[in-house]
């Protein structure tokens, strides 16, 4: 025989390959791409969309008034919705026609009270009035979610008109 014979292989013997060059599964790259894309979309939603959504909620919450109202809670849930508190004034309370009613600022512990432009706690201030100031009632009372308000005018010559919470008013004779 010939000395040039090369080593013969068994037909089913695997080829020798370096360990670093293993076969690649064809679908693995597609699965990896889909996974990375999913992570990227999730990251985008969490960092970009959610903060705007949360800001919109906080803006909506900040527009709500901060008044507490006691509401009886039923023991069992019902299908009837409860009415919501609003700043819509109730119908005015009638004052006798032709009578001149006067009130005096009181119950402020010497702090005085603010005459407001509208019958609401958040309304702009017209002026501040010291305790003991006598006022003329010029309109009908209005009740809303935060209080009952009386429409008055000052009698000191400035003729400022506005609204005062009735908690800080008591009946008074004419000046």
> Stretches where pLDDT falls below 50 for ≥5 residues?
none
CATH level 1 class label of the domain at 102-172: Mainly Beta
Number of strands: 8
Q: For the CA atoms, what is the radius of gyration?
A: 40 Å
CATH third-level topology of the domain at 102-172: SH3 type barrels
Overall residue-averaged pLDDT value: 74
Annotation field: number of helices:
1
Distance linking N and C termini: 143 Å
Could you say which overall geometry the principal axes of the C-alpha atoms support? rod-shaped
Describe the main β-sheet briefly. Answer: 6 strands, antiparallel
Class of secondary structure makeup: alpha+beta
Helix content: 10-25%
Report the β-strand fraction as a percent range.
Answer: 15-25%
CATH architecture title of the domain at 102-172: Roll
CATH superfamily grouping of the domain at 102-172:
SH3 Domains
Q: Helix and strand succession?
A: HEEEEEEEE
């Amino acid at each position: 025989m010939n000395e040039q014979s090369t080593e013969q292989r068994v037909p089913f013997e695997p080829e020798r390959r370096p360990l670093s060059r293993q076969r690649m599964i064809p679908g693995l790259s597609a699965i990896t791409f889909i996974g990375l894309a999913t992570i990227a979309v999730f990251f985008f939603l969490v960092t970009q969309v959610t903060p705007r959504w949360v800001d919109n909620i906080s803006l909506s919450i900040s527009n709500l008034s901060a008044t507490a109202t006691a509401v009886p809670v039923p023991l069992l849930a019902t299908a009837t919705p409860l009415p919501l508190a609003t700043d819509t004034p109730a119908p005015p309370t009638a004052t006798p026609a032709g009578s001149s009613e006067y009130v005096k600022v009181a119950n402020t512990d010497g702090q005085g009270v603010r005459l407001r432009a509208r019958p609401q706690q958040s309304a702009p201030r017209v002026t501040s009035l010291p305790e003991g100031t006598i006022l003329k009632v010029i309109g009908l009372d209005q009740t809303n979610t935060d209080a009952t308000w009386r429409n008055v005018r000052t009698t000191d010559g400035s003729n400022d008109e506005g609204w005062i919470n009735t908690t800080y008013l008591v009946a008074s004779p004419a000046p």
